[in-house]
Design a protein that fits this description.
Layout lengths: L4 E5 L9 H4 L4 E3 L17 H11 L15 E3 L11 E2 L1 H18 L6 E2 L1 H17 L14 H12 L1 E6 L6 H9 L12 H6 L6 E2 L1 E6 L2 E7 L12 E3 L3 E3 L9 E4 L10 E6 L5 E5 L5 E6 L11 E6 L10 E7 L5 E8 L1 H5 L29 E2 L5 E2 L46 H12 L5 E6 L3 E4 L1 H7 L4 E6 L5 E5 L10 E4 L8 H8 L4 E6 L5 E11 L8 E8 L4 E9 L5 E8 L2 E6 L1 H7 L7 E3 L6 H7 L4 H7 L14 E3 L2
Parallel strand pairs: 1-20, 2-21, 5-7, 11-18, 21-23
Antiparallel strand pairs: 1-6, 3-4, 6-9, 8-9, 10-12, 12-16, 13-14, 13-17, 15-16, 17-18, 19-20, 22-25, 23-24, 24-27, 26-31, 27-30, 28-29, 28-31, 32-33
Length: about 650
């Protein structure tokens, strides 16, 4: 009998991904949730709700690893010259997408990821190239007899995807997602669980799948680098608070992604089994099993600040088992309970355990990366895992930006896609003393760093924090619960006698006549407002998302002027490749951001520019993101810049 071999290779593209229009992320601070689960900014689903979802999706968990899930083609790949990538059937694609979204639902993330025809094509070509090469790689070599156009598609797809291979034919895509990419338990991947973190990336909005199967085995791919979603969850845990026992093996590591960098030296994790009070502890100095912290320093692995631990001595996880997790040494503590279940335990009347309540969410940022990676070790499904080829990162992407808030139709409010229903304000009890400490910590890094705060919709930055920020190469990022973020650059702060207060409006209520003057002909819009209406003592940036489809277009920010009952133009911005926009603000009020060719003509704005003058607080990544180009392209246009971390106010940067 032929030995089954499964391999999965982690994506680690050399990618500049930063929250809020290309700004580099450093730290995020969130207050404790007031209910039983603390520090998890995800949705809570009961065991019955999850079970109902699993039944609705119709995915048989017993089949996801050991048996094929009916993988079929829409167009059969041609695996010899002349090659053709082919395509998966819509049924197979839908099943894989259902598995992905179901996992995200269980974890408490937005579960509305969609299929992209472009991504399906890229991943299908990636699967073909790796299959032909009989080698699993994010940087596959070009087969000698393959057309360059097809190879280029495969290379692009492989460099931006989770990839996997198995020695047998018709390997289940669902099984690959659940028991390879979500497992990540081998000796190489356990330190980062990067495949898992891509699947659980809160900002994923679209994906694609590819697979080629034949005498070389099965090669699968899932497009990973996508930031078109509006999710801002943090504290993303796997196993989740209510966890189908069939989805988690004793060899799989536990993980919690905080969405901000975590100091490994201070973190202490305590895992307690409720039934017998057996306890495992994990930290940098000693651990009762595997332990790691990954901050995306040397590679990009989805959401940053991931704490990974796996207890020794677990015989198996059984339905009805409950484990309590507490994590200390963070800016705010984290604690929650994981309850394993199956259909019989739910019907038998077992309780769901702790309800975390907390719906506060914050985005996570990623840092540039790129490293060689290859998995190895045993496969938890009962077969051996084979190292896949070296992964050296591959391609450099455009700086991504998803500051939160979905693309809206003209007239919709609060950054909520297609909805005019006001959302209640999210109130967070921020530890501002800790924020001040993190500002000081960020100031010790190279270049301009971010100190990120999940501030909620009603907050006041104390004068002590503002004065602590003054003159530092630090940008204070303040994330609201409405998909809008504000930023204050330390270089812009002068001595402050008072704090800076923001109360987000749950309903913007701009008079219709004034509103329509800027919404008419708009391709996308976001409305937001603050209760405060006075002029700010310091320049403020506002970050929002206007949709990836508007990349490269000019966006305009207007404020409603009550005296004239009209909208006044405030500033403009070129939408980034991932739909992000950042505008300068000097006062509170009621605002509308629009993408509109008509507005561009009225304002006399150029569609593009060839140079940019550096302002205090700028970084090259921020400049690139604001002008719709990659950091690599910006560096190429400015050969005189030898150190990308050193630019000066007043310096002229060439954009093209």
């Amino acid at each position: 009998m032929r030995k089954k071999i499964l391999a999965a290779l982690l994506l680690a593209a050399a990618l500049v991904v930063a929250q809020s229009a290309g700004l580099p992320a450093a730290t995020v601070i969130a207050a404790e949730d007031s209910q039983q689960a603390v520090g998890l900014g995800v949705a809570y689903h009961t065991q019955q709700e999850i079970l109902d979802r699993m039944k609705k999706d119709g995915l048989n968990t017993s089949d996801t690893f050991s048996q094929p899930d009916g993988m079929t083609y829409g167009e059969t790949p041609v695996t010899t010259a002349p090659y053709a990538a082919g395509s998966l059937s819509q049924d197979t694609l839908n099943k894989a997408l259902a598995m992905l979204n179901q996992i995200r639902y269980i974890a408490g993330l937005q579960d509305n990821v969609t299929l992209s025809d472009e991504y399906n094509g890229l991943t299908q070509a990636a699967a073909l190239v790796n299959y032909v090469n009989k080698d699993l790689s994010h940087e596959p070599a070009q087969p000698a007899d393959m057309a360059k156009e097809l190879y280029d598609l495969g290379y692009r797809g492989a460099s931006k995807s989770n990839i996997a291979s198995a020695s047998w034919q018709n390997r289940s895509l669902n099984g690959t997602i659940l028991h390879a990419w979500m497992a990540d338990w081998d000796d190489y991947n356990i330190a980062r669980v990067g495949h898992r973190r891509w699947v659980l990336n809160p900002q994923m909005g679209a994906t694609g799948f590819g697979a080629v199967s034949g005498e070389n085995g099965t090669y699968n791919a899932m497009y990973a680098i996508d930031y078109t979603g509006s999710g801002q969850e943090y504290g993303v845990a796997w196993p989740a608070q209510n966890m189908p026992v069939a989805y988690f093996d004793k060899r799989y590591p536990w993980s919690v992604s905080m969405g901000s960098d975590v100091d490994e030296s201070t973190v202490k994790v305590t895992l307690t089994r409720v039934a017998d009070s057996r306890t495992w502890t994990f930290g940098a100095d000693s651990a009762d099993g595997a332990f790691a912290v990954n901050n995306n320093i040397s590679d990009i692995c989805g959401q940053t600040g991931c704490i990974v631990f796996r207890p020794d001595g677990i015989e198996d996880y059984k339905a009805g088992d409950s484990f309590r997790v507490t994590i200390e040494g963070l800016a705010s503590p984290v604690s929650y309970t994981v309850n394993f279940f199956d259909e019989s335990s739910v019907n038998g009347g077992s309780q769901d355990g702790d309800n975390p309540g907390g719906s506060d969410q914050q985005p996570g940022g990623e840092n540039p990366g790129g490293s060689d990676q290859q998995p190895g070790g045993d496969n938890p499904g009962g077969s051996d895992q084979q190292p896949g080829g070296d992964n050296q990162g591959g391609s450099t992407n455009q700086p991504d930006s998803n500051p939160g808030g979905g693309t809206t139709q003209p007239g919709s409010q609060g950054g909520q896609s297609g909805s005019n229903v006001p959302a209640a304000n999210v109130v967070v009890n921020v530890d501002w003393n800790a924020v001040g400490g993190k500002v000081d910590e960020a100031a010790m890094g190279e270049g301009v760093q971010n100190a990120e705060v999940h501030a909620g919709d009603e907050f006041e930055v104390p004068a002590s924090v503002m004065n602590g920020l003054k003159g530092k190469d630090v940008t204070l990022m303040l994330h609201t619960g409405k998909g809008i973020s504000f930023s204050i650059a330390g270089q812009d702060v002068k001595k402050q006698d008072g704090g800076w207060k923001v109360t987000m409006l749950s309903s913007v209520d701009i008079p219709a006549a004034a509103e329509q003057t800027v919404l008419q002909g708009a391709e996308a819009s976001v409305e937001f407002g603050t209760q405060e209406n006075e002029t700010y003592a310091v320049p403020v940036g506002v970050h929002l998302n206007l949709g990836k489809e508007n990349a490269g277009k000019r966006a305009f920010l207007y404020v409603y002027d009550e005296a004239s009952d009209a909208m006044k133009l405030v500033s403009s911005f070129t939408v980034t490749a991932e739909g992000g926009a950042m505008f300068g603000m000097s006062r509170g009020g009621r605002y509308i951001a629009v993408v509109s060719e008509k507005a561009a003509e009225v304002a006399g704005m150029p569609t593009g520019r060839n140079s940019y003058t550096v302002k205090p607080g700028d970084t090259l990544s921020r400049i690139a993101a604001g002008n719709g180009i990659s950091l690599g392209e910006l560096m190429k246009a400015n050969p005189q810049i030898k150190n990308k971390n050193v630019i000066k106010p007043g310096q002229v940067i060439q954009l093209r």
